[in-house]
């Protein structure tokens, strides 16, 4: 139960087979976290966007969205954490933009579990959940909301190329990862700029952006080294950061053990 005595959206999701869990006029959606398990930067478009060749997977934890259609022609989106505290996302959130893209009006309550700025696709997955709810499956349009939205709309495991709009589904593999998300916000544009300034290095650990992210936020190394010490493995950065991960289950304070999940 949340601190105000109301049932959390995540609890409703876990009890989604119960007819009483969600009002009949509403839909409860799940927006899974995504993990970029490898990333190569392979080129640059004429408009300045970097081209990637990456593998991404969906994970078994994420945000929950309670969506109620609004016949009055207006939309309201609120974000809270799992105990009901309001989370300030800002006026240009991807959920509002996704509603506008599909021409739908709704009241949406988003319960955030995926940390912001972690490289785990929280905002992108929330937007993809709205697109899926509205029946929109056009990946080329989805990517205009954000580079990860197209993958999040498909989910599962995929090879992702271009600027994110080319999503090639791959066979599902059941895998377990241990994640650590430092309280460090990594700006994706800043990381790509640093990658350019470094001369476009190839990362030696399966992620070309890792050296650039460490230039933008050197403090990331502290959490990388702590996870390495705890697991005996070399952590890899998820996308442009800030989450570090290793394969396998290593429970501990500040760590999240997650499993891959199939496509929607």
Topology:
Layout: H1 9-14, E1 26-44, E2 50-69, E3 76-80, H2 94-102, E4 106-111, H3 122-133, H4 139-142, H5 149-154, E5 157-162, E6 166-169, E7 176-180, H6 188-197, H7 210-216, H8 220-231, E8 236-237, E9 244-247, E10 256-261
Helix pairs in contact: 2-3, 6-7
Can you tell me about this structure?
The chain has 264 residues and is an alpha+beta fold. It has a single domain (9-261), classed as Ribosomal Protein S5, domain 2. 25% of the residues lie in helices and 29% in strands. Strands 1, 2, 3, 4, 5, 6, 7, 8, 9 and 10 form a ten-stranded mixed β-sheet that branches. It is globular and about 55 Å long. 39% of the residues are buried.
Quick tags:
ten-stranded mixed β-sheet; alpha+beta; disordered N terminus; about 260 residues; Ribosomal Protein S5, domain 2
Structural class: alpha+beta
Radius of gyration: 18 Å
Estimated helix fraction:
25-40%
Which word captures the global form?
globular
Q: State the CATH architecture.
A: 2-Layer Sandwich
Low-confidence stretches: 1-9, 11-20
Number of strands: 10
The CATH topology is Ribosomal Protein S5, domain 2
Number of helix segments?
A: 8
Please provide a brief summary of the model.
Helices cover 25% and strands 29% of the residues. With 264 residues, the chain is an alpha+beta fold.
